[in-house]
Specification:
With 683 residues, the chain is an alpha+beta fold. The chain folds into two domains: 55-123 and 130-366 and 392-575, Quinoprotein alcohol dehydrogenase-like superfamily (Methanol Dehydrogenase, Chain A); 583-674, Cytochrome c-like domain (Cytochrome Bc1 Complex, Chain D, domain 2, Orthogonal Bundle). It has eleven helices and 39 strands. The longest helix has 24 residues, at 583-606. The two termini are 26 Å apart.
Length: 683
């Protein structure tokens, strides 16, 4: 067995035997993050891997037994308001965030708190948060836990204690910036964006040295004051797509408040950007133009932040149609050819498949009702419907600022080939404010729209759905309908399952292939976050954070009334009935693995020349995996006492002991079982 696996098993023993807090995550470096897909027992980064597919091959819990799933433990955060975090699970410890950017480390076996960090955000900073005082999770790297704090700080915490290692302010705190998104680790750097476009800011994404907190680069998403030098050629180009007005005084928007992914093979970071500031283009850019790089997917160089390519989902955004929604990387066969793609279901209602190597449009389809535009399938550019514009009067539009899909994580199952989208059907109403005047106050919204129209939002005008979307055919394979919108993110597994939470407090499992509901459990609070799964001591857990809040909970009015359950934040882990492996059993397992590891080393030091690497010999030499039971019985006599000397097998008595030979024999038998060979059979 590999030494790293043995060390992990040892860590499990210590933690299980001595209790929570006795052991902490092993080294998580760039190599381990790149290989995250091989660690089925963990959830190392926001979307499990850099591709952010939120798919786990674990299948102990599967379509045939998920109906037996029961709560294994519950952890109460002690907080209310929205809980949107995806847990990180590393070597027996769960790391989550709650409202107000609180961070918790929790024993992944028992739910017992290990430590809790309160960044002590000024309550008055809550007025800068358009969409609740939420946080979507942490990142982990080389013994540190990273969190973006609501007030604009980025902090590194010691994973063992929760103590602050370093803290940097990433924004101008005199302006209405916030951070609600989870940081990402890319090649030794921590990447973080920000929010605040509704109130009036200029968007950007920043990279900081993960060990020191020193800023490495910053990439703005929209041009600043054109009378001043542009920060890059890309922004100089973008400025040509803004016409008239003084957008830079309001900020311009384009905040990168959620989606960040990375392709380590292509060496490209992908960032989703947000809406304009103000929303209405007549106040922001009255002369027209696409207003780059609003509502776009940006591909950046990880070392410098330089723009490589962009794709804009909503040119000249007029409706708060952000492209900050989750990005999924996958390799698909399209028209008989393999394509490296990036997939997104942004707010505007179109599901996009883009070539991630160069930003080329492949296809788009409508995953919810879309009234604002149709799609030119050749250019990938939406064709606006005049009825969706609102230079004067009222426009009823679908989707709306809540989006056909918002920040809630979607997932992709490579076995079914389907993307599972937590979608919303909300009828939007837009009207220009009588006269837009920028309000330079951290708590004032600057959208340029009339918010009185939100009084039109009623229970009958909203609903939710889980859409199983075929990204190749650009069509729904199956759909599950909910009475309410704003249901939780999805998780899909190798057990042919999709898990999703609902605003009525249920956590639900569906069959991934056809959408049949197989199980549900009441959590007591609305579930809007996305779940994760992991394996410890031979037991698979499915874990999700519950807690009502977020944009719809805050401003949904009558349509959101009565949802959310008790609204309390809680982390719940589910598992199949049956006790996990006891510490003594794990000790026995480690002892066995240690013996095998030593036997493997002794075999390759003494036997490999004749009997082949990993006990796989060439045809002319004896392959020990095929040894008869009679030969196994006299194994020590053969190796130590030379009873097969006449067949060319010398004695190793000077080099090996009886105990050494027993270890070699155990390793040979292990390889025989591992490769499915029957002792004594002809080869």
């Amino acid at each position: 067995m590999h030494r790293r696996a043995v060390l992990v098993l040892r860590a499990l023993v210590v933690l299980t035997a001595l209790g929570a807090g006795a052991a902490f995550a092993a080294e998580v470096d760039d190599a381990r993050l790149r290989a995250a897909d091989k660690e089925n027992e963990a959830w190392l980064t926001h979307g499990r891997t850099y591709a952010e597919q939120r798919y786990s091959p674990l299948d102990q819990i599967n379509e045939s037994n998920v109906e037996n799933l029961i709560p294994a433990w519950t952890f109460e955060t002690g907080l209310k308001r929205g809980h949107e975090a995806t847990p990180i699970v590393i070597d027996g410890v769960l790391y989550i965030t709650g409202s107000w950017s609180h961070v918790f480390a929790v024993d992944a076996r028992t739910g017992k708190e290990i430590w809790h960090y309160d960044p002590k955000v000024n309550p008055l900073d809550g007025r800068k948060a358009c969409c609740d005082v939420v946080n979507r999770g942490v990142a982990f790297y080389k013994g540190k836990v990273y969190v973006g704090v609501l007030d604009g700080r980025l902090e590194a915490l010691d994973a063992k204690t929760g103590k602050v290692v370093w803290s940097v302010v990433t924004v101008d705190q005199s302006k209405p910036y916030t951070i609600t998104g989870a940081p990402r680790i890319v090649e030794g750097k921590v990447l973080i964006g920000n929010g605040g476009a509704e109130l009036g800011v200029r968007g950007y994404v920043s990279a900081y040295d993960a060990l020191t907190g020193k800023q490495v680069w910053r990439t703005y998403t929209v041009p600043g004051d054109p009378s001043k030098p542009f920060e890059s050629k890309a922004l100089e180009t973008a400025a040509k797509t803004w016409s008239g007005g003084e957008w830079w005084k309001v900020g311009g928007g384009g905040t990168a408040w959620d989606a960040i992914t990375y392709d380590p093979e292509l060496k490209l970071v992908y960032v989703g950007t947000g809406n304009g500031s103000p929303w209405t283009r007549y106040a922001r850019s009255p002369g027209g133009g696409d207003n780059l790089y609003l509502s776009s997917i940006l591909a950046l160089k990880p070392d410098t932040g330089e723009l490589v390519w962009h794709y804009q989902t909503t040119p000249g955004d007029n409706w708060d149609f952000t492209a900050t929604q989750p990005l999924i990387l996958a390799d698909l066969s399209i028209d008989g050819k393999p394509r490296k793609v990036i997939m997104q279901a942004p707010k505007n209602g179109f599901f996009y498949v883009i070539d991630r190597t160069n930003g080329t449009f492949i296809s788009a389809g409508t995953y919810v009702k879309v009234s604002w535009a149709s799609m030119d399938q050749k250019t990938g550019r939406p064709i606006e419907n005049k009825t969706a514009d609102y230079p004067e009067g009222l426009a009823l539009v679908q989707p709306t600022a809540f989006g056909g899909h918002n920040w809630h994580p979607m997932s992709f199952n490579p076995k079914t080939g389907l993307v599972y989208i937590p979608a919303h059907e909300v009828l939007g109403a837009y009207k220009r404010a009588p006269a837009f005047e920028y309000k330079n106050d951290p708590g004032k919204w600057n959208t340029g729209t009339d918010f009185n129209v939100y009084g039109l939002l009623t229970r009958g005008a909203v609903s939710g759905r889980l859409v199983a979307w075929d990204p190749v055919k650009q069509e729904a394979r199956w759909t599950h309908f909910y009475a309410n919108p704003w249901n939780g993110g999805t998780l899909t597994t190798g057990g042919n399952l999709v898990f999703q939470g609902a605003t009525d407090g249920r956590y639900i499992a569906y069959r991934a292939s056809d959408g049949k509901q197989l199980w549900e459990e009441q959590t007591g609070s609305a579930v809007i976050a996305g779940g994760v799964t992991y394996m410890l001591d031979g037991k698979q857990y499915v874990t999700v954070l519950a807690g009502w809040g977020g944009a719809f909970g805050l401003v949904g009015g009558e349509a959101a009334q009565g949802l959310g359950g008790d609204g309390k934040g809680r982390l719940i882990a589910y598992a199949l009935p049956g006790a996990p492996i006891k510490p003594s059993q794990v000790v026995d397992l480690i002892t066995k693995q240690d013996e095998l590891s030593l036997g493997e080393r002794l075999y390759h030091e003494n036997c490999v020349v004749c009997h082949g690497g990993s006990v796989v010999a060439m045809g002319a030499m004896p392959d020990l995996r095929y040894s008869t039971p009679e030969v196994r019985t006299i194994f020590a006599d053969i190796v130590l006492r030379g009873v097969f000397r006449g067949k060319g097998m010398p004695s190793f008595e000077k080099f090996l002991s009886e105990a050494d030979v027993a270890k070699i024999k155990a390793y040979v038998e292990h390889r025989q079982q591992q490769t499915g060979v029957q002792p004594g059979q002809a080869r």
